[in-house]
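Table S2 (continued). Query chain:
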Amino acid sequence: MILDPHANDPGGNGWFARMAAALPHKIRIGGPTEVSGIMADLSSELAAREASTGRDAPEVFVIVHDLQRFKSLRPDDEFRFSMDEDAAATPSQAFASLLGEGGPVGMHVLASIDTWNNVSRWIPRKLLAEFEMRVLFQMSANDSSNLIDSPAATALGLHRALFHNEHNGTLETFRPYAMPDEAWLEEMQAIAR
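Corresponding output:
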């Protein structure tokens, strides 16, 4: 599953759509208007996997590009009151459940977000710990410390990033690459099929 804020743009033959066409896997792409349906489907899949521990099910990867562009995934007001006990989970509640409970049953989230302020708005502190691997570009010492408990991202220059692996306790500097071109996609398509 891919949540791309540009999925429904006019002439929207974006990179994710081209990648999905090149791979043999069933990949569903949706924009902000499809979030409710996609999150409901993911919530149902999560519930089914939790009942069976998810060991026999294939891995599911949910890619959320520009999380801050998906307003419905922003956490609800904690003091919201509802008379309907059986009301379906909101997209933000389903997203929080996926972050907190998806990993052990083979459902993983890869998300990109632009600033620490937006990270703190969209991902509660408790659930931020579920993101075991993080990539940071140059940012302030405070933002870097909030994300990886180190101000290391302040020392990054142009064309450098940090890869932080919480589980292994490693921090690596690397040089990110540009998005792959059509030739690379065609090569991957030939290999995958």
